[in-house]
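Posting for a labmate who doesn't have an account.
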Amino acid sequence: MPWLQLSINSTRQTAEVIEDALLDAGAASVTFEDDADEPILEPALGETPLWQQTKVTGLFDAETDTAAVIAFLEQQLEQPHIDHRWSPLEDRDWEREWMKHYQPISCGERLWICPSWLAPPREDAVNLLLDPGLAFGTGTHPTTFLCLQWLDQLNLTDKTVTDYGCGSGILAIAALLLGARFANCIDIDPQALLATRDNAQRNSLPSEQIPVFLPEQAPAEPTDLVIANILAGPLVSLAPQLAELTKPGGLLCLSGLIESQAEEVMASYATWFDFDPPAQQDEWVRLTAVKR
């Protein structure tokens, strides 16, 4: 059915109050958007930060009495004039609209990431079938794409892998399809472990080849490759642990950081690793190294 959107310009301090008022006024849902191009790169664990200038948008049935909604909000918020805008939202098949945004991605000479509802462009390629959904990691973001490019360049035959912060499992699955023997997948989010299992099944990988673990349950045995596509802060704090998980002579791949964070991250691993020159896409950086 058709909908109406009510957008209200807000601040970080008042956004959640406006959200509650919109829901009380009958909004079916409420979303927050950046209203001033202000990036939030690394929130604290468990934190859902908002932008200083935040646009709050409520979704209403098209038959809604808009004047009554505004009068209710002005009373609830104790504001005589609210800076707002009503706009129609076209009725669409939203599942299909979402699917249009994902197309096959070439990640090097061999590897392609393909949404499972589309035919792979090259049947002779290494085609990783992926359904974006429960967890981060579709191949479209530079942090993931840089890691996939690195994996595509390696000879992974019979190698063992640790994917720390596995998200959707895309990096571990790519390594296995490129010849790795097994990949331990570790994440703090149970939803990520579920997504990894689902995507592994979609790619016909047996569960024993790609076991999933919460951090406290993960095996301590070192592997030939360790990949961690997370954030700069956790990468720094996890340095001793990720070093222990990497075999001598093994390879390390770190991503999820921006250029200004690279030096600090490399310094935290310098005791154990020799780094290659950083690889960069836009402001995002991938670091790779060999363990001494």
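Reply:
Got it, the structure tokens are right above this. Residues 40-45 have pLDDT under 50 and may be disordered.
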